[in-house]
Design brief:
4-stranded mixed sheet
């Protein structure tokens, strides 16, 4: 089963792509994406993990665009020059 869910935190909302095997309970694996976000390759990795019996969880929000990160970027712009 594949879903997109949101997890509401204290500072922000995190979107998550999650795939679950048919047999539960199952161990979870967090799949972190590179610069391009949750694209077809990351979703395929999640699907492969499910076939092996894992729950695959891939955050699809831009991890560098949270409110705390934006605040840090404003106070120290050189630290985020590459982003």
């Amino acid at each position: 089963m594949t879903d997109r869910i949101t997890i509401e935190g204290r500072d922000d909302v995190l979107g998550v792509y999650i795939t679950r095997p048919k047999v539960l309970p199952a161990p979870p694996v967090v799949v972190l994406h590179e610069l391009f976000g949750v694209n077809a390759d990351i979703r395929e990795t999640g699907d492969d993990l499910v076939e092996q019996g894992f729950i695959a969880i891939a955050p699809y929000s831009n991890l560098f665009e949270t409110e705390r990160c934006r605040s840090n970027r404003q106070s120290n712009p050189m630290a985020f020059h590459l982003f």
